[in-house]
Amino acid sequence: MVGEASRDPSPKGKHGLPEIDPTLRATAAASAGGTLVILWPAFTLGAYGAIFFDAVLAIWAVATAVLLSGLMLHARGALPWAGWVALTLPSVWVVLAVVAPRAHGFRYLHYFEVVLTLVGAPALAWLLSRILLPDYAELPERHRLRAVAVTIAVGVLAFLLGKFNYLFLTCADFDISGNNTPPGCAHGPPFHLL
């Protein structure tokens, strides 16, 4: 029996299950991380025509945590200068929001917020993948680009899901989740599994 198991060419893990390819693991982890960053902002942009401040603040929190970690460790050479700039962009948005004249409606700040979220979120996901995933640097460039493409594709799909939310959600689904109802939502009861 042991001899038969050793003839099997597929690599086995601890419990006799096939091992997951490290390239797939790193690519999927980078893609999943990126999609978690972009999902909600893209959906709310589609559903409400706005990106909610909590999504931008979540990006700010992650970027600031990585930035401060690098500064505390004096790891200036660990990232290219563009990486450090990307990590400071969410803080720039916060500073602009504080100093912008609120009485006159500084509408260009909203455009910066949209660009920061839609462009900054995939860039931040890419940067975090480089920092947090040990296998990421070993991935061939085409796999890293695929992870970015998956993140962008999910962002576009989330935007479309938000835009066409009335096809699968109702106004009651938004109400019961604690969100405002977006314009054009479908009337009806909320979705229940039981």
From TrEMBL:
Positions of transmembrane segments: 26-48, 55-75, 81-99, 111-133, 145-162
Keywords, sorted A to Z: Membrane, Transmembrane, Transmembrane helix
Name of the protein: Uncharacterized protein
